[in-house]
Design a protein that fits this description.
The complex is a heterodimer of chains A (302) and B (431).
Chain A: E1 2-11, E2 14-24, E3 29-33, H1 40-47, E4 55-60, E5 63-64, H2 65-72, E6 73-76, H3 88-98, H4 104-117, H5 131-143, E7 149-153, H6 161-176, E8 180-184, H7 188-194, E9 197-202, E10 205-211, H8 212-217, E11 223-228, H9 231-240, E12 248-250, E13 253-257, H10 264-274, E14 277-283, H11 287-297
Parallel strand pairs in A: 3-8, 3-9, 6-7, 7-8
Antiparallel strand pairs in A: 1-2, 1-4, 4-5, 9-10, 11-13, 11-14, 12-13
Chain B: H1 3-16, H2 19-36, H3 38-46, E1 56-61, H4 64-78, E2 83-89, H5 94-105, E3 111-118, E4 121-128, H6 136-155, H7 159-165, H8 183-221, H9 223-230, H10 233-262, H11 265-275, H12 289-314, H13 323-326, H14 328-346, H15 351-358, H16 363-373, H17 378-406, H18 415-420
Parallel strand pairs in B: 1-2, 1-3
Antiparallel strand pairs in B: 3-4
Classes of the chains: A alpha/beta (302), B alpha/beta (431).
């Protein structure tokens, strides 16, 4: 378990992290979200002991991170950088050797990952790689020593959809093997899809944290999401139930908050009378909606 | 293998793998070899022939048959290039002598020679420019057989007998250098030592720069964040200093080995015989082994100290364009050390030289200069080296803290912040 207790970190007049308390359970995929400048990267750097907190403590399974970070943690920073005049394999061997991992086991593991993510690109010099492939090399440099905690800062930025999908699969694979994952992203759909737990940081403080379902349910609101066969059917339904006009409509789809004037079961009956119902869902608001509400409106810390 | 060893190995390979390193190593070795033979190489410049390589012009006033005999003597001795004899008539009157003197003084010719037959045999007189005084033995050798032939004829001795008497005497000649007695080798030795001091300053500066450029490039390329995420900053710094310093030490050792070998009498003699240059068959002795060893020692001490200081200062900037500004202070210290070392050259036992030997940032230069010019009391030597080692330990701690604080910063860090660790506007107790 990763525990962050009362951590503060400032740079000059800027207080980047201001009394942060956070717990990441072992075996979780924890999404750290928050606006730009909220302290996510500083928090990650302190977890990795790249920066030292001004106050507070960070421990991994009860031990200070300074004792375990270099060997037990892996890190993919937001700012990408590699040695350009090394081959992909030389680069990976170098970063693995820094963590004391060498020999046949490393070679076997490296070949598996290279076949999976790099293909023929593995034979090239790093300076000849595309931006996306460099991210993959950095990712491999972060995982080849089999870290117990993998910290990913904006891992999907700069990747095309195909590579995003490969990356997600690789992350889920590592998680299935027992690696705890902590990652930050501005893409709420990625966070919502991957995370078992998440925390929202704003102005260096934790605003919201918990399991994904807990966080999504935290607002206490529910949302009705409805998709019919076509726009005409949706138009007919809105004429029958005028309260639906307050929702967000996109062609044949509609999303509306469930309030006192909206009875989901009654609306479902009306929709079936109008035509074919392709999607009917009542659930919590999306993470993106929740994020916009919390970050946009300025919610006080719990 | 420890992380710092992994980094040292990468840095060593990165430096030694490039062609500039190999070129500098080879050129430096050749330069040192050339320096070792400087006295031999510059001997022609300090010898009897004129500086521009053209033959010395000597006008000859003598009966034509005597001039021909003289030319016959000159051809095999002077190889036709060092001496050019020009016939100007059987004899010179007073006006002609005055004109010839004027041409010597105006550097139009190098001298003139007059051979006048008389009742007591040949009368010979020679006039030379003072700068060509060294030609006198050669000309004396040329004139002597001609005079002996004239005397032999007057005495009725057959020319064949005279020729047999004039055969060269076989004489094996060995030359041994007299250390300190000959001003030319001594001056060369001092010049070479000065060049070694300049080389020491350059080597320390260049390899210190290599450290700072490496740090800046890693900051700019952002690979620094990957490194500090994997290895404690102090180990990164130690790895860099050891790796790049190892490359520098290898280069210095190659140079010193070449210097040692070419200063060895046996090797020099063997090479001289192989080249057919008997002049090389003695050792100039201008690169003694203790000097070469001192160079290596003080390169190691100076490089390690300044590499750490350079690393600390280089970590304060965010872009390569700013690095020269950041390194102004340590570079100024190197220049100051060089200046004190030059002073120590003149007065090795002066208060300035002794003080400079004990101030670690000057010690490598000043102690080296003093060791080259003379002996240094053992106590001062031990104190200077010991204090420098202590300074290296302190510099490693200082550089480690500075590197850790600054390596991920995107802004320029002030000198005050570098030394105090306090960021501008920082609140002591943030709420």
């Amino acid at each position: 378990m990763l525990e962050i207790r009362g951590v503060r970190k400032g740079f000059g007049r800027v207080q980047a992290v201001n009394g942060l308390d956070l717990t990441v359970e072992e075996g979780a995929i924890f999404g750290l979200i928050g606006p730009n400048g909220s302290g996510k990267t500083t928090t990650m750097r302190m977890i990795l002991h790249i920066l030292e907190p001004d106050e507070g403590a960070i421990t991994w399974q009860g031990r200070p991170v300074r004792e375990v970070a270099t060997r037990e943690f892996g890190y993919l920073p937001e700012e990408r950088g590699l040695y350009p005049r090394m081959t992909v394999r030389e680069e990976l061997r170098f970063f693995a050797a820094l963590r004391g991992v060498t020999g046949p086991q490393l070679e076997h593991e490296m070949e598996l990952w290279l076949q999976r993510l790099m293909g023929a690109e593995a034979e090239k010099m790093v300076e000849a790689l595309s931006k996306g492939n460099r991210v993959k090399v950095q990712f491999l440099a972060a995982v080849l020593h089999r870290p117990r905690l993998l910290v990913l800062d904006e891992p999907f930025s700069g990747l095309d959809p195909v590579n995003v999908q490969r990356f997600k699969e690789a992350v889920l694979d590592l998680w299935a093997r027992g690696t705890t994952i902590l990652f930050s992203s501005h893409r709420m759909d990625h966070v919502e899809e991957l995370c078992t737990h998440l925390g929202l940081i704003k102005e260096g403080r934790l605003v919201l944290a918990g399991s994904r379902d807990q966080v999504l349910a935290a607002s206490g609101r529910r949302v009705l999401r409805l998709t019919l066969a076509g726009p005409q059917e949706m138009e007919a339904l809105i004429q029958r139930v005028p309260a639906l006009g307050a929702g967000k409509r996109a062609g044949r789809s509609l999303e509306v908050a469930v309030t006192g004037g909206i009875d989901p079961q009654a609306i479902l009956r009306q929709a079936l009378e109008v035509g074919q119902v392709e999607r009917f869902e009542v659930g919590p608001p999306s993470l993106e909606e929740l994020y916009l509400e919390l970050v946009g409106e300025g919610v006080p810390a719990p | 293998m420890s992380p710092w060893q992994v980094i040292a190995r990468r840095e060593f390979r990165a430096v030694t793998g490039g062609w500039p390193y190999r070129v500098v190593t080879v050129v430096g070795a050749l330069l040192l070899a050339a320096l070792a033979w400087t006295p031999v190489l510059i001997a022609p410049l300090t010898g009897p022939s004129v500086g521009d390589g053209s033959p010395a012009r000597i006008l000859v006033a003598a009966p034509w048959e005597l001039f021909q005999a003289l030319e016959g003597q000159a051809a095999p001795r002077a190889s036709g290039a060092a001496l050019q004899l020009e016939w100007i008539g059987a004899e010179l009157d007073r006006a002609g002598q005055t004109t010839a003197d004027a041409r010597v003084q105006d550097a139009e010719i190098d001298g003139w020679l007059e051979l006048v037959p008389g009742p007591e045999g040949l009368q010979a007189s020679l006039t030379l420019a003072t700068t060509q005084r060294a030609l006198e033995p050669l000309l004396r050798q040329l004139v002597a057989p001609v005079v002996w032939t004239g005397r032999a004829r007057a005495l009725g001795v057959a020319p064949e007998v005279v020729a047999a008497l004039q055969q060269p005497v076989p004489l094996e000649v060995r030359l041994l250098p007299r250390v300190g007695a000959d001003p030319v080798p001594r001056a060369v030795r001092e010049a070479v030592s000065t060049l070694l001091l300049v080389g020491l300053v350059m080597a320390i500066t260049l390899y210190g720069n290599a450290i700072s450029m490496g740090i800046i490039q890693e900051k700019e390329s952002r690979v620094a964040e990957l490194l500090v995420g994997a290895v404690p900053p102090t180990q990164i710094l130690v790895g860099k200093v050891v790796g790049i310093g190892g490359a520098g030490l290898l280069q210095v050792l190659v140079w010193m080995l070449v210097g040692f070998l070419v200063s060895g009498p046996r090797l020099v003699a063997a090479i001289g015989r192989w080249l057919g240059l008997e002049e090389l068959a003695f050792s100039p002795g201008i690169l003694p082994a203790p000097i070469l060893a001192a160079f290596t020692l003080f390169f190691l001490l100076g490089y390690t100290l300044y590499a750490l200081v350079y690393a600390a200062f280089a970590s304060t900037v965010a872009r390569a364009e700013e690095v020269n500004q950041a390194l102004t202070l340590p570079f100024f210290l190197i220049l100051l050390g060089f200046a004190i070392a030059l002073g120590a050259w003149v007065a090795p036992a002066s208060s300035l030289a002794v003080a400079g030997s004990l101030i670690p940032c000057f010690t490598p230069f000043v102690l080296f200069a003093r060791l080259v010019t003379g002996s240094v009391p053992l106590g001062q030597l031990a104190a200077g080296v010991g204090l420098t080692l202590v300074a290296i330990i302190l510099a490693a701690r200082f550089a480690g803290h500075a590197y850790r604080r600054n390596v991920l910063r995107d802004r320029r860090v002030s000198l005050r912040e570098l030394f105090t660790g306090r960021e501008p506007g920082r609140r002591q107790n943030p709420d």
